[in-house]
Design goal:
single chain; 9 helices
């Protein structure tokens, strides 16, 4: 994770795929032969979408090439083409209608930050008060100095107004016990 500068979510995805591969192989992964990898990928290609299949190739490359220094086991496997599906984005009026339909300030602020920041969902959810610079009206995602988001007056005001509540929601989310989950659902219940 540290050597390759991988995000925590990327590491989790790789770990899940290696576990899936290990369960299929049923033997120590250091004794795997190329034919076993080929058979696994053949089944993965039949079972999963192209993006997921390509994810297995990425994981196996990371594991065998970068971790075990056995790149020869995975160097001939190629990605399958992914069919491009254009996303139809809502227009300005639809976004405004959605924003005004949100009745809770925490969710409004998260929506605004998500729209203007370019941050991924997990980066936004992990954003802390310490990463928001109110004086310069910007924020930085952790581990990524290149992604600085500049807050407009509305999002800056909303962010200031609900710092305490946002930190409470983050804390409840982090703890994740049943009582706190019920509190989160009560706070955000209208939006699920």
């Amino acid at each position: 994770m540290v050597d390759l500068n991988l995000e925590r979510e990327t590491v989790r995805n790789h770990a899940w795929r290696v576990k899936t591969f290990a369960e299929y192989i049923g033997a120590p992964l250091v004794y795997v032969e190329k034919q076993q990898i080929r058979e696994f990928l053949g089944r993965a290609k039949a079972k999963y979408a192209a993006e997921s299949y390509n994810g297995f190739i990425k994981t196996l490359r990371r594991f065998y090439r970068d971790f075990l220094n056995c790149g020869y086991l995975v160097d001939t496997f190629r990605f399958t083409p992914v069919v491009f599906k254009p996303k139809i984005l809502p227009d300005r009026e639809q976004l405004q209608e959605f924003y005004h339909a949100i009745r809770h300030e925490v969710v409004q602020t998260m929506f605004l930050l998500y729209c203007v920041s370019g941050l991924r969902r997990t980066e936004l959810l992990n954003l802390t008060r310490d990463q928001i610079d109110f004086a310069n009206r910007c924020a930085r995602a952790s581990n990524d100095n290149a992604k600085a988001l500049h807050l407009n007056e509305t999002s800056l005001h909303n962010t200031r107004a609900l710092n305490q509540e946002y930190e409470t929601v983050r804390t409840m989310r982090a703890i994740g016990d049943k009582y706190n989950y019920v509190q989160i659902k009560r706070v955000l219940g209208d939006y699920n």
